Amino acid sequence: MCAAGPAAAFSTAGSEAGRVRVLVTRPQPGVARTAARLSRLGHDAVLMPLFESAVTASIEDLPAATDISGLIATSARAFDMFEGIDVAAAGLADMGVHAVGAATAQAARDAGFQQVHEAGGTAQSLVEELTRDQAESWSGSGAANRSDRRTALVYLSGVPRTAVIETALRAHDTDLTVVECYKMSEISYSTDILKSDILSPAPDVILFYSANAARRFSALSDREQLSQPLESCRFLCLSAAISAELPREWQSRAMVAAHPDEDSLFASLAKLG
Known about the structure:
Blueprint: E1 2-3, H1 6-9, E2 21-24, H2 30-40, E3 44-47, E4 51-55, E5 70-73, E6 96-99, H3 102-111, E7 115-118, H4 123-138, E8 152-159, H5 164-171, E9 175-188, H6 191-198, E10 205-208, H7 211-224, E11 234-237, H8 240-243, E12 254-256, H9 262-271
Parallel strand pairs: 1-9, 2-3, 2-10, 5-6, 5-8, 6-7, 8-9, 10-11, 11-12
Antiparallel strand pairs: 4-9
Helix pairs in contact: 4-5
């Protein structure tokens, strides 16, 4: 675990009448961007990133560019490995990137990739897009020729992760290489920081951007006996899968964004006002 001191872990503004105190659990740098957006809307942001990301691979860990037909990414963190890299010089700029959603797609473009395909914001929507594309590429081909038409996809994955992408694509007989290029490590918080600073005064709303964050915060709440300061809190989740990770007693106070993106999450926040 990585310990976080009070100054680095969170920031608060004195709550005033009409302002909403919002706890943000996503990692840096996203947590700072979300806090700035909340501040522009007149809310008080409390930053509590539950994980931090570290790059664990380099471009040398990828197969040769000529052996890759496309890249798959389910997080913007996947493109941290390309920082300082000229992807055009590496022969990767024109390679198709299949991104789970808008934030991941933008990170791919920022890294220099030009052919970026954006799915619907969930792993399932990404799988559906990939398998549909594969089925179309095989249409009219005989089974005997199928081995020559397999797509050599590279999944730029993190640790930990679920096996949704790998299981689904391999079930469709897709050639797939997994490159673990970033690792999410837990950030620890002392009981004093949690109770005296982050949760005092208690947040009105907590934002969850991932199932891992929902699980981690729920475990912290149970271990540190935080039910009292959270008894009136609302929980806004980017997807139903994230909401499902919250304790049963929180479910009635949870709301799922209409779409798995931050704009929809903020629209849900506005509805609480």
